[in-house]
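Q: I'm writing a short explainer about Leucine-rich repeat-containing N-terminal plant-type domain-containing protein for a general audience and would like to include a description of its predicted shape. Could you first generate the structure from this sequence?
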Amino acid sequence: MAHSYLLLLSLLLFITFNCSMQRSMAQTDAGELATLLTIKKDWGNPSALSSWSSQNASYCSWKGVRCVNDQVLSTLSFQNLNITNPVPASICNLKNLSYLDLSYNNLTGQFPTALYGCSALQFLDLSNNHFSGALPADIDKLSSAMERLNLSSNGFTGSVPLAIAGFPKLKSLVLDTNSFNGSYPGAAIGSLTQLETLTLASNPFAPGPIPDEFGKLKKLKMLWMSGMNLTGGIPDNLSSLTELTTLALHVNKLHGEIPPWVWKLQKLEILYLYDNSFTGAIGPDITAVSLQEIDLSTNWLTGHIPESIGNLKNLWLLYLYFNNLTGPIPSSVGRLPSLADIRLFSNKLSGPLPPELGKHSLLGNLEVSNNFLSGELPHTLCFNKKLYDIVVFNTSFSGVFPAILGDCETVNNIMLYNNHFTGEFPEKVWSAFPDLTTVMIQNNSFTGTTPSVISSKITRIEMGNNQFSGDVPTSAPGLKNFRAENNQFSGPLTNNMSGLANLTELYLAGNRISGSIPPSIQSLGALNYLNLSSNQISGLLPAEIGSLLVLTILDLSNNELTGEIPQEFNDLHLSFLNLSSNQLTGELPQSLQSPAFEDSFLGNPGLCAAVNQNINIPACRYRRHNQMSTDLVILFSVLAGAILIGAVGCFIVRRKKHGRDVTSWKMMAFRKLDFSECDVLTNLREEDVIGSGGSGKVVWTPREGEPEGGRVQLRRGAAGAGDRAGGQRQQQGRRRVLPGGVGVAEVQGGGTSPRRRRREHPGQGRVRWGRRGRVRARGNVHRGRRTPPALPARAGTAATSNWDKCPRGTKVATKLPRDRMTSERSWVATWRAATSWLVLFKSSL
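A: Of course. Here's the predicted structure. Afterward I'll give you a sentence or two in plain language.
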């Protein structure tokens, strides 16, 4: 009975307790649900939290929410949700919240002290936001249960407060990449004995040494203190940090030798000491067999690379560049089974590369340039088909390009320049390597050709100072830099340069390129540097070069270019120009007439500049002459046309006026008569002389049908200037009828200048002496025909006439109307004037 009573009582108590727990759980669920919805509202209802709804009461399944046993909310993770509003204080109403991740958002302002109320918080990540200002001095008001605090990649300033030591359970303190410019409490941090990760890197702290107190952090696995103005050396106190897997002290001002104990840390995997001033040798006895990455670059290390480095079976990265290491590369390096990236450039290493390098590992990157290495490249470099970079420039390697490298299709960069390589460079490298982007093999003795089409992945080719031949490639869609100077390329440039449209640099000086520069060069719109000097390029400079608006360096010197420099060059913005030693002519474009370019045109004697330009280039004086010539051409053309039209018009008017009285002229065949002086001078008497002068005598003589008679001029011809050298010609008398009635054809005209004294007579008309001097007649008698009279000839110097010795009474005469003579003389004078203008017009051209 009693037993049954006790059993019933226990059952009632259990039911009561269970109901109480359910009511409590229901109340808790309702409170957390309301808190979450409030947080969503305070953050502006971000779209990423659209699943948060009162209609979905199972908040443990909401985005960013995690619960323990699907009942107790413990985690909120809101990475990269673009949250901008401040952290609400209501978040701490979640009493069981232990994990809060707000990284990679856009939170601003000072450190959110609203989180002080989250008493259960163990993990807080506020990294990669935009917080600023100093950390609060009472930061230890955060949960004392804090184990991981990440405030990296923000804008916090000032010093790290001493209160940071108020988290005795802290295992990870990450404060890197801020703007702390004060100090950090080394002793306080050293008291956090549970620390496993300490990162203070990339902050401009006040210069100071590595705190000795950090040696107390026995559980520390990661010590990352790069870029924080550390000075001094590596303290020996850190040798007690036997759990270290990462020691990163790079980019500081540390000096001294690397302590030997560093090479004995058995758990050390990453050792970054680069960009300091460490000296001395690399420890000879390396037993830190867990090392995977060693970067000691950019220091002052000396001595040899120890052979014991071959013990590091896990080593895949070895960076020792920019030091003063000497001696050979140990052969044991070639046997490292994990080695993938080795960079030893800019040292004083000598000897050959390890013969097995690349055979036992997936070697991807080899950089050993700027050393004294020699010998041939090992044939094993691409044994496992993973090699992507071969960088061995500025050494003394020789021999041929290894055949196996010609099949290494994984290569991205080939840099073999400034060596002694010989032999044929594999042509398939240019087109068969799908990932190849850079080929720099200049200053060797390679031979071979390049295909017309280059892989579109290749962006840079430098192959100058070799012995390549053949044609220049015509298509390389991805190529930006092409330097192939001082080779044996020949033939013309392609007429269609659109296949090289992405070029920014084209350097082909010192080859045998012929032909002209094609107009399609305008398709190289990105071209900044063009050098085609010392070739055999001929023809004109294409005006299309002027369309290369980003071109700053142009060198076309030592070619066979002709013609003028196109005016389109005025559109260029050149910082350097060389067109010397060509055959260019004409005036320089205005923008090139500058003292900065006066040495750019040497060896082009046909080039000139404007008169008012203060440069050492001949002035273009023909420019003004050409302008004047153009003006004269226009003026003379107008005048000649006007005169010609006027003369023709005058002639037509006169012809109409006298057309009824004057019979048209007829051309008659003249009969040549020979007669003597006496035949001409018959019946003339001395008393008939009415005047005399330099041209002879004027006498009165009767004419048939005219009793009044008329005046006749008697002249004796003299030798012209052209006859004086050969002796005096026989003088001949002349008779000329002046008024125009009866006349005897004169015998011969002389050549005396019109400037000499002369005498005009009525009836001569306005016929110039220049015209008269060219008229010659030799006894052609006009018998009763109305033919054009010969113009009077200018006589020579007068002499004594023999006319008185001849018998009188002989007359040889013909009839010619005076009006006809006058009209004809006017027409001849007009025609001569027009002809003179035309002659002057032609000479001006």
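A: For your explainer, you could say: Residues 654 and 823 are 8 Å apart (CA to CA).
Q: Perfect, that's easy to follow.
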